[in-house]
Design goal:
This protein is mainly alpha-helical. It has a single domain, classed as DsrC protein, C-terminal domain (Arc Repressor Mutant, subunit A). The protein contains five helices and two strands.
Length: about 100
């Protein structure tokens, strides 16, 4: 278990940089991941994706598979990769504060 600090907030993360406690998700975390991902500016589409991921996780206890995420957001998979260069599992789930996905997201 490691710890990172960003803008005065400390976050405990796993070995892959995912937030250990979903309940500690906040805007500072989003900003930290944004910088890690090399995303210059967050759009409404970024926020929509994060919100959908969080809602799905709260209801199901896991991240949605890629096809489900694409259907729920209305974005083609290619567009999700444009929004989150490291992909829906690594980038989007990490930004949403979800644990590292175990399967194909």
């Amino acid at each position: 278990m490691a710890e990172v600090e960003h803008k005065g907030k400390k976050f405990e993360i796993d070995e892959d940089g995912f937030l250990l406690d979903f309940n500690l998700f906040n805007e500072e975390w989003v900003d930290f991941v944004k910088e890690q991902e090399g995303i210059k500016e967050l759009t409404d589409e970024h926020h929509k994706t994060v919100e959908i991921l969080q809602d799905y996780y709260k209801k199901n206890g896991i991240a949605p598979m890629v096809r489900i995420l694409s259907k729920l957001t209305g974005f083609k998979l290619k567009h999700i990769y444009e929004l989150f260069p490291s992909g829906p599992g690594k980038g989007a789930c990490k930004m949403a504060g979800l644990p590292k996905p175990t399967g194909c997201v």
